[in-house]
Every structure is written in structure tokens, then in C-alpha cells.
Amino acid sequence: MEQTPYSIQTLRNGIRIIHRYSSSPVSHCGIIINAGSRDETLEENGIAHFIEHCVFKGTTKRKAFQILNRIDGVGGELNAFTTKEETCVYGCFLDIYNERFVELLSDIVFESIFPEKEINKEKVVVIDEINSYEDTPSELIYDEFEKQLFGNHAFGRLILGTPENVNNFTSEKIKSFINNNYFTDQMVVSIVSSTSADKWFKLCEKYFGSKPTKKDNRQRQKAQIQYGVKNIYNRDTYQSHAVIGTSAYSFKDEKKAAFTLLNNMLGGYAMNSYLNMHIREKYGFTYTIESNYTAYSDVGVFSIYAGTDKKYMDKTIKLINKELDYFTQEQLPEKTLRKFKQQMKGQLAISCDSNQNEMLSIGKMLLNYGKVDTLSNTYAMIDEITSEQILNCAQEIFKLEKLSTIQYL
User: Which of 35, 37, 109, 170 could join 181 in a cystine, given CB atoms 3.0 to 4.6 angstroms apart?
Assistant: First the structure.
């Protein structure tokens, strides 16, 4: 990676392009747009995700089956996702089809017509997705927790929306949301490919460069946090579920790096996390226990999830609070901190070993920070984190009075 640095170019309309060389014959490319469910009104809730579905349903020159066959028909894959602040359309394909993909990507992002007939069919699919999601309490509880944390703010709403809203979406409403939230200076085309950056820049200029300039003029509403809220809901399931958490640092906050490391130690996906070792392994109370930290542009969310038998729920929550209290009491030994720093570096390196992950990661970094750090720079930043910084983060975020809890029993 360090011998193949990133190449960045900005088109005259503000769309940014980032490229990293890879020796693989498979190219990965996607466009990341700074628009998501947080930009919706209450009546629009779910429309950002619905657009993600409908961009594949027809353009000024293609019907839905032509879009789906254009890349899949040559062995590639075309996909999309929506978050609270981003919409992404991306794909992977043999590098001989680079131009085919870029032309298609430009077509579906800028020339989709959202025919009512296709929209009505997709409503059934999305409503089924919503209903299916509500059958999965281990996932639904996260959204219920964020609703509890953010109240009526858009951050507190389900990205999928509601069946009522979805049924009311029209082509006109979709185009209105896009007009109000898709800006060329808030778009990044991200590429990992064996084809040179110069060739990719020429392709992007050809298919994206002539799109009209639109500069971001939004004023996003800041969320008001509700602290210390506790709710218990009865659900007819064998396993009980709980989420404990609060607000945390935004991705622009200088404390983000230290808290990311702290969260990884506490309950990251490695099996040696404090929560996993001291609750699951030691007592066998939980099937799944983990902590998560999601950083948005102006706020973050920290949460701990536990799934357990109902009879172990109270004991599990007490043990979670004990672990949180541990991190607030004194600085970690340097030996312990070094061990977890090394672990985090390894996890980052393995993540970057996936070209798709790398493509999405560098695109998001350029969109959010205006730059992309190399892996060696990221390692240096991790090395600079101190035990004192970890302690300060824990004392700020893990305050008992700030923590909210939601349980499904």
C-alpha cells in the first residue's frame, strides 16, 4: 500500500475522484454521496433508502432489466447501501469493463427517471424488508435505542422508514429529495484498480465531468440527546436483549481515535475484548456481547449489546457496568495499551487487504475529511494515543448518569 499511494483529482463540478492501484484484475468502484436518512423530514423518512432501491429501476436510456444485466451479465456485481449520512452505489468487475461500469454508474445516479410502475413494485419489496427487520430483535433493538437517544430527530428514525411512508412515496417526492440533498461537491468516486489513475480520471471526466455543478447549501439540524433513559419492553422471544449506551464523539473530534481504541478494547469484534473475556468466557451468561461506536459528522453513538437468557440479564448488566467503571478509575498499564494498539493495527491491515473495503474506506475518508491517511500514518496516530487519553474518554462517555438502557425481555 505504501508503494502505491492514492491519486486524487477534483472535476470542475466539484466531484472528487480517488484512485489506488491494485495488481488484481478485478476493479472496485463506487460513488459515495453525502446524503442519508438524517436529511429526511418526518414525512420523507425512508426515502433515502428507497432511492437506493429505485436507482436500478430505469433511466432516460435504460430499463430495469438492462441496468441489472449491464454488469451482472459480464460476471460483475452492482450494489448499493444507505446509512444515516451516506448513500453509496458501487460494484466490482473485471478491469476490461471499467468504462462500461463508469458509464452505467453515471447513468443511474444522474439519469434515473423513477417510473411509477417500478416504484409501486419496489414498495412491496421494501415493506417486506421492514417487516422482516422487525422480526429480528437483535437488530431492531439498536434502532429502538437510537430512537430513545435522539427522540424526534432524524437520527432516531429507522433508515428503512415506515410502511405508511413507503406507500406514499412518488416519483415527484423522490426527485425532490435528490434535488435538495445531492450535491456534486458532496460526492466522491472511489476506485481500486490495476488500470492507471490517469485512465480512470479520463473516464470520470467523460461521464461525470459534464454534470451541472451543485454546491451544498443545507443546514443540518443538530440532534438533542436524551440522557439516562431506561425502557423495558416485553417480547415473545426466547432470548432477552439489552443495549446500554449514550452519545459519543463525532468523526471530526480529536478524541475520536482514542475512543475508537477504547471501544475496541472494551467490546470490539476480537474474542479477547474485555466484555467477551469477563462476561461470556468467564460466566457463560451471553451468546453475544459487543460494544459499538459510530461517529457521525456532528455526534457519535456508543452502545453495548448483550443477548442472554432472561434469568441472566440483571447479572449481565451489572457486569457490564463493572467493566465500564474499571476504565474510568485509573490509567491502563502501558503494556496492556501496547498490546491493544498492536491488535488494532493488525485489524486495520486485514481490513485493507479487501479491495472492496479499501475502496469504500478511502472514499468515505475523502468525503468526510478531505484527505486520506496512509496506513503508516494511521499506525503513527494509534501509537500516539496515551493511557491518559483513554482514561479521559472513559470518564466523559461512561458516566453512569449519561447512560441509557433498553431491554427486550
Answer: 35
To 10 degrees, what angle do helices 334-352 and 387-397 make? 80
Those residues with Cβ within 8 angstroms of residue 55's Cβ, 6 or more apart along the chain or in another chain: 80, 89, 108, 109, 112
Residue 390: C-alpha distances to residues 128, 263, 395, 401 (Å) = 43, 10, 9, 20
Alpha carbon 288 to its chain's center:
21
- How does DSSP classify residue 284? -
| Cβ within 8 Å of residue 256, ≥6 positions away | 249, 250, 295, 300
3-state helix, strand, coil in the chain (%, to 5): 50, 20, 30
Q: How confident is the model at residue 2 (pLDDT cuts 50, 70, 90)?
A: very low
pLDDT given for residue 28 in this prediction: 98
Sign of the C-alpha dihedral computed for residues 397, 398, 404 and 409 taken in this order: positive
CB 261 within 8 A of CB 340: yes
| Structural domain 7-208, CATH architecture | 2-Layer Sandwich (3.30)
Whole-angstrom Cα distance, residue 78 to residue 231? Answer: 40
Q: Directed axis angle between helix 256-267 and helix 334-352, to 10°?
A: 90
